[in-house]
Each structure stands twice: as C-alpha cells, then as structure tokens.
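pinning this so it doesn't scroll away 📌
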Amino acid sequence: MKKIGLFYGPLGGSTEKVAKKVVAALGFDNVDLIPVKTAKAADVEKYENVVFGLSTIGKETWQADKSANDWDVFLPEIEKINFANKAIAMFGLGDQISYGNHFVDAMGIVGEKIMKNGGEIVGHVATEGYDFGESLAVIDGKFLGLPVNEDFEPELTDERVKKWVKVIKPLFK
C-alpha cells in the first residue's frame, strides 16, 4: 500500500483526536498526518490515498461572512485538485443531538467537490445506529464517510473507527 495523506482540521480538539485514532488503526508507518490549516492543493496531489478528517462546520453555513474553521480556508484548495485516480476516504465530526438537521454536513459539502473533480470516495457508512434528521453527507442511503459524535457518543468512536478502517484499508492502492 502506498503512503496515505490524512488531512485534518482543526488542530487540537476532537478532530485531531479522531485523526490520531485513524492513523493508529491504519498503521503509523502508512500515514502522513497533515493539518489542513497549512496545506495546499499540491500537498494532497502527492498522494493516491487520502483521508480527510472534517470538523463540524463551526458556523451557520460555509458561505457565511466569517471563516471560523480550518476547512473553510482549505475549501478553495479542494476545488483546485484533480482527484482522478485517487482513493478518498472521509470522517466527519458532528453532533446529531444539537444539530440533527445538519449532521456531518461538512462531509457532504467536501464530498460533492471531490466527486465533481473526479474523485472516488470510499468507505461509505450505513445510517443505521445514527439518530439524526438530515445530512448533506447521505447519498443513496449511506454516509459518504464515517460520522463521529465525540460530544454525545465518544464511547462508540473506537469501535466505529476500527470497523471503518477495516473497510477502507484494502481499498487503498
């Protein structure tokens, strides 16, 4: 398997914590852990296997006036990347209790741009076991990636990461 670029944001907090769990499950020698805050399109293009670790949007919408999130800053870079011949997996943090009608929407927003630029998203996850209203991350009845709720279900994270990595690891070239 070729090296995996795991791009995550923001630094510190739950997204970084889960990113490190994913790195451990994939194998430390297999992954470069890269904060999106300092990343550019060229950094992603170096990898055939990519994992994006997304935080909750952190504001009403991605189009709001103030960017409060590392992913807001990185989103224009995603639009520059040719994702053809890349395997892309995503995990997204969200709170299905407080934001049940926008649960892990960030995965849907980023996923749409990846697919528009020729990317194949691997590691879709069934919606069963998640209690939410709506999500932009659900396509054809499945999440585009792994939803994680560290606010209200942290006890489920390790098992969810372990199962998800078993699915995505063989799909990486």
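📌 and the second one:
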Amino acid sequence: MGTDKELNNKSTSQQIVKKILVPVDYSECSVFACRYALKIASRLDAEIRLFHTYYSPAFDLIEMASAVQTQTQLKEETLNNLEASERETAENFIKSLKEYISENHLPDIQISYEIKPGVPED
C-alpha cells in the first residue's frame, strides 16, 4: 500500500486533460485567454469548449385583455432573435480563432461552444 504522497503523485501523473473550458465575453481578454488555451490544447491534444452567457432581458409587456397571445409571440420572437444573434457572434469568434490556428501553424484543434441566457457575472 502506497503512502498518501505516492498515491497523489500517481493520480496526478495519470490525469489527462481532454477538454479545456474557456468562458468568453468576446473581449480582448477573451481573445488572449483563448489563444493561451489553444496553445495548451495543441500540446495536450485537447479540445476547447467556449462558454458564453448573455443577458436575456426578462421583460413583460403590459398585458392587454385581448393581446396575451401577441405578447407571448413577441416575447418568443425577441428571445429567438437574441439567441440567433449570440450564435452568430460565437461562430464569428470561433472563425477568428481558426484563422489564428492556421496563421500560427498549430494543429487542428476541435473548438465547440455553448451559449446560455443568464447574468454573465453569475
């Protein structure tokens, strides 16, 4: 039976990083964080997972007795448009990262993303 120190060393040496999670807000700091993560991923043969949360206004229109359906449709359409816009921004951000990979002769690194409505600070 090994000592605690031996067990810790053994478990540490056997851990393999497969995915790197990078929270992004598309700022210059996010770009630098992603570039750093890409360099690490290229050495570890790991994937990059970007995560972005965006503010989704939880708004309620003034309910009118006969316009409840209109209100629901407008709210759904607004939220769908907001999500589509966020997805487009994320895909353009990934495109710029792929260009960075190509320009710096890094190996092909799988990049995926997830976006969720919420409060970014949380």
